[in-house]
Design a protein that fits this description.
By secondary structure, the chain is mainly α. Helices cover about 60% and strands about 0% of the residues. The termini are far apart.
Amino acid sequence: MDAMKERRCAMATSNNLKEWNMENPSPQIVDQRVRNRIIEMLEWLVECETTPPDCGMDELINGWEDWVPAPFEPGLYLPPVFTEAEQELICRVSRAVDVFCDATPKSITDARAAIQLPQWAAVIAAARSALLVMLERGRMPEENALR
């Protein structure tokens, strides 16, 4: 497994909380950190379009839901960190993930078969659209709030 995949697998299970300054971050800094993790998860989803992740589909899906709770509730992610368009696209990815989960067993044992499902193609399409829009504004600082 290459270093990036190892990092993403670790991210999905630990959320990298130990790496951050945890002393009273403002709500906006927390939102900026969450935004960055969502971008990373979108990148990971898109990378797994035709090749399942080494750490398994369950980790990938659970990693997404660590940052975007299901069912997604509009208004969870607010400006100035998230635009309305970004929020809507995150919601679309969340719905696509939910549909994919409904089409697969609780624990996905055949990842190769899972990524052949039309529901997975819908997840990838939604993730790709969300990623393109979110990368227009890009990642945000994790130690200080944007003004």
